[in-house]
Amino acid sequence: MEVQIITDSSNLIYQQTHGLLMRWGVSEAQADLVTLFVLLGLLMVVLGIVDFVVRKVLVDLLSRAARKSPLKFDDLLVRNKALVHFARLVPLIVSIHFIPVVFSGFPEWIGPVRKFIDILLVFGWVMLFRALFRSVRDHLRTKKGFQDKPLDSYLQVINIFMFFIAGIVVFSMVTGKSPWAFLGALGAASAILMLVFKDTILGFVASIQVATNDMVRVGDWIEMPKYGADGDVIEINLNTVKVQNWDKTITTIPTYYLITDSFKNWRGMQNAGGRRIKRSINIKISSIRYLTQEEIADLRKIQILTPYIAGRQAEIDQYNAQTGADRSMPVNGRNMTNVGLFRQYINRYAQQHPLIRKDMTLLVRQLQPTAQGLPIELYMFTSDTRWAVYEDIMSDIFDHLLAAIKYFGLEVFEAPASDDVRSLRLSASAGEAVQVN
């Protein structure tokens, strides 16, 4: 009944316009075409008025209300243009009702034009829902539990699903066939689809595994030398992970490589609140020796070593007395060495350093001697994990130790420089000259 009323009214409007043009002198052969253009012009005017009213009244007023509202979600709707996409739907919906009126003289055009408007409506609704989901994503990012989650990956999957459904609907509209026929055809071409969407499927699976296993979060410092990545993760998408390196370059890594390849995540260090120092001082082996009583007495003046030297010397003297060691030969019995005392000094210096964590591993150890001398390794953690501060703390410690090492009669190993070689040659030449004379 409603369709009949609309059809009758459409024919009435068309006939009145057609008759008016005939009375104005338009020929009957041209009256149909002129009527079409006249009604199209009137439709454009109506749609322009509707679009203006919707944009100015609805969109602008609601946007102002959203800015004044204490709620944050409505601000996200405005920022993601959800209202704008909704406003674009209104003229399309209005135009559907005017199509039978405008094309009454050309009824064969009504179906194709209606399909075209319906297709525009489908994509308009997709864009509206896309803006809504983006607003939901931005809203979740403000929540503490979602700030480091790969929300972009999930949003991309939803977008792909929406466009896939929209494509099926459009296919059904254009061909007039059931959507199930299209899905059946896709089933037959599943191998081709798997090949085309291989990266998307791998990225989707990898994103789920990354989120489920909490392997990487936005803001994590990761290191992946194979792909030149060493910096903070700034974005996790369905297909890629973006890493801002310390030199401010951007490295893009496929998401599924985080599953198939190994990488280092420094989040544990940052959460623990301690950053490791693991560096050695190479001691020249020829400078290692026993200490004399005079040297020990001199080293007692180092305040942090005074209690240790006193206790250690008493222990050594007691042992040597009990064993009857012949002290005329230093090898007999027990003695203090300059490298052993220096190692104890490093340990006590680190123990009293205010920026070294005492509740984490702290040790000073000897490593296996090499051609570059005897390595004395410092293994400890700073209380500040910031890169610049960490480097300052480590540099200050080694500045002090390299300056203090000479007081223990030790030398740091270093390869001879060109000046050293020239000095040896000059000394040798001078010695030969003296022998000749």
TrEMBL record:
GO molecular function terms listed in the Swiss-Prot or TrEMBL record: mechanosensitive monoatomic ion channel activity
Keyword flag Transmembrane helix: yes
Residue ranges occupied by any Mechanosensitive ion channel MscS C-terminal domain in the UniProt entry: 339-410
Predominant cellular place of this UniProt entry's protein: membrane
GO CC terms, sorted: plasma membrane
Recorded superkingdom: Bacteria
Gene3D superfamilies: 2.30.30.60
The Mechanosensitive ion channel MscS domain, residue ranges: 199-267
Keyword Membrane recorded: yes
Pfam families (alphabetical): MS_channel_2nd (PF00924), MS_channel_3rd (PF21082)
Transmembrane segments: 33-54, 89-110, 116-133, 154-174, 180-197
Compartments it resides in: Cell inner membrane
One of the GO BP terms on file: cellular response to osmotic stress
Membrane topology label: Multi-pass membrane protein
Swiss-Prot/TrEMBL keywords: Cell inner membrane, Cell membrane, Membrane, Stress response, Transmembrane, Transmembrane helix
Family in the record: Belongs to the MscS (TC 1.A.23) family.
Name of the protein described by the UniProt record: Mechanosensing system component YbdG
Organism from which the protein derives: Parapedobacter composti
